[in-house]
Amino acid sequence: MTVQDVLDLIRDKGIKMVDFRIVDVPGRQHHVTVPATHVDEETLRRGLPFDGSSIQGFRGIEESDMVMRPDLDTAFVDPFTKVPTLNLMCDVYEPSGIRYDRDPRFIAQKAEAYLERTGVADRAYFGPELEFFVFDDVRFDTGQNGAFYAVDSEEGIWNSGKSGEANLGYKIRNKSGYFPVAPSDTQQDLRSEIVLALEEAGLPVERHHHEVATAGQAEINFRFDTLTKTADHVLLYKYIVRNVARKYGKVATFMPKPLFGDNGSGMHVHQSLFRGEVPLFYQEGAYASLSETALQYIAGILYHAPAILAFSNASTNSYKRLVPGFEAPVNLVFSQGNRSAAIRVPVAGVTPKAARIEFRTPDSTSNPYLAFAAMLMAGLDGIQKRMDPKALGYGPLDKNIYELSPAEKEGIRSVPGSYSEALAALEADHEFLLAGDVFSEDFIHNWIELKKTSEVEQVAIRPHPYEFYLYFDL
Question: Which residues carry this modification: O-AMP-tyrosine (predicted)?
Fold first, then answer.
């Protein structure tokens, strides 16, 4: 969109407020709102000043002046505000006018530019599948002398014996929530309303359904796009999901493992490369119709997976999902149509343009700009170094890996067992991210320290409720 297109949209839609948004380093959005009467051509071109020291992972107070400039192609009318409001995603700049190196959106854009410079391809497509829970109630607290959390859902199997009000049954059993119809599935209308809001905001949706877990686990799939645009769409998706759930008096969470004893929520990421209109991942008659380029890309992701997970599974809670027994993709191998492998190659209805790989390990605690950029850089490293996934021991392995014996599993690498391990892997293996100045040493060091000090160490030093069960009487 041009500046005039946005000004026309403000006039035609009767917009009263314009919301300017940025994303911080961990992946949360922040916004400032300006009356539409004060938004003119200069505002849309030059942007707005803001305090970078108040944004997590950005600047200290001694150098806090920064500027956000809107990407006009991201404009959409907010469906949740009473006052007509236009939302715009922004890029972050230094006061001097140069891009800010720690802006996650800039890193995603640099990854796309680097892809073109390599000559390998000119477009990378990403199609994430975000899973989430919609609960009826959530409570949590932590203090000096106590800590707890509790979530509830009318669908939760733990409510099958609930009394005090009419209990109409049809609770969803653990691991039995895939595709049930009403009345077991209580959230059909909620998900449909999310779909309508997404499409109204310009994001095409392919399907929605209840997911495997009890208690309102859901998935809504939107159409793939290029790297930065898809990361923009992930933030838009999460914003709309959360606010439609709130409208229904419920709460949505993308936390990977909010429930013990049932499947967690992932963000499976489909990926492919194109040069012009030519798909680069397809080869007729080959294993899973994969080209040599696709195999090398797979090898790059699996080789660098422990480091990638520092961005793609960016929470201590992520590694409570990545445990055997809950369809968790913990095995660093690839396979066609096999959901027990970290990389699945979809084979149903494959055409040259639909040929792709699916990295199943990531989850939605990631900052999508950083996670997608890290995946692309790893894949490109595999292509440039002509890595062979077979020679490296990454498969293909066309078996249910969960049912292999310990002897059969020997030699299969697994994902890190904790976020501390993933951050250590990133510290040891990040040269591939520095290519083309996509990531910087400063950014990676800042990320590791931020995550260690504000998350990993804070979780580690607090007593856990289960520790009382294990140790209180010793």
Answer: 402
Mean pLDDT on 244-268: 97
Same domain, 212 and 294: yes
| CA distances for 183 relative to 190, 207, 294, 335, angstroms | 14, 20, 43, 36
Determine how β-strand 17-23 pairs with β-strand 85-93. Answer: parallel
Instruction: Exactly one of 105, 210, 360, 430 is catalytic; name it.
Output: 360
> Is 264 labelled as part of a ligand binding site?
yes
CA 186 to CA 192: how far, in whole Å? Answer: 12
Q: List the catalytic residue out of 51, 63, 199, 200.
A: 51
441 noted as active-site residue: no
In a domain, 462, yes or no: yes
Tens of pLDDT, residue by residue over 373-427, are 999 999 999 999 999 999 999 989 888 887 788 888 788 999 999 999 999 999 9
Residue tagged active-site, from 19, 211, 262, 363: 211
From 154, 358, 363, 455, the catalytic residue = 358
Identify the domain boundary among 39, 66, 100.
100
Within a 10 A sphere around the Cβ of 410, how many other Cβ atoms? 8
Q: Is 219 a catalytic residue?
A: yes
Please indicate whether residue 129 is annotated as part of the active site.
Answer: yes
Q: Which of 426, 135, 423 is nearest to 255 (CA)?
A: 135
Q: Are residues 32 and 135 in the same domain?
A: no
Judged by DSSP in three states, 70 sits in: strand
How far apart (Å, rounded) are the C-alpha atoms in residues 100 and 264? 35
Q: Give yes or no: 360 in active site.
A: yes
